[in-house]
Amino acid sequence: MDKIKVESLSDEEKKSLGVNSWPIWTKKISKFNWSYDETEVCYILEGKVIVTTSEGEKVEIKAGDYVTFPKGLSCVWDIVEPIKKHYSFRTSSDKI
């Protein structure tokens, strides 16, 4: 199983990916199970979440992070500060 990938992007990289044109998703403080039917990439605008994978790996994600969630991942989202993110779903043929 691929792991969650957390990166930093330059303003130029965000622009080339078109991050600001992606839809925005927001969620208040909460905890829920989630699974990914396809690969999702997102850029965190605000907040903080701790994602725990089914293997027990904990990944802290915060404002400014560019995150790739691999297809097939099952996890628990524990939103500790209200989250706001740009997101996009990718097929295997897309360049990420």
Describe the model.
The structure is a single chain. This protein is mostly beta strands and 96 residues long. It has a single domain, classed as Jelly Rolls. It is 7% helix and 56% strand. The protein is built from 1 helix and 7 strands. The chain has one helix spanning 11-17, and strands spanning 5-7, 24-27, 30-35, 39-53, 58-62, 66-69, 74-90. Strands 1, 2, 3, 4, 5, 6 and 7 form a 7-stranded antiparallel β-sheet that branches.
Question: Average pLDDT, to the nearest integer?
Answer: 93
Shape: globular
CATH topology: Jelly Rolls
Overall CATH architecture: Sandwich
The secondary-structure class comes to mainly beta
SSE run: EHEEEEEE
Major pleated sheet: 7 strands, antiparallel
| Count of individual helical segments | 1
Number of domains: 1
- Percent in strands: over 45%
DSSP summary, beta strand count: 7
Highest CATH level, the class: Mainly Beta
The share of residues in helices is under 10%
Low-confidence stretches: none
Rg, nearest Å: 13 Å
Summarize the structure.
This protein has 96 residues and is mostly beta strands. It has one helix at residues 11-17, and strands at 5-7, 24-27, 30-35, 39-53, 58-62, 66-69, 74-90.
Q: Which SSEs are present, and which pair or pack?
A:
Elements: E1 5-7, H1 11-17, E2 24-27, E3 30-35, E4 39-53, E5 58-62, E6 66-69, E7 74-90
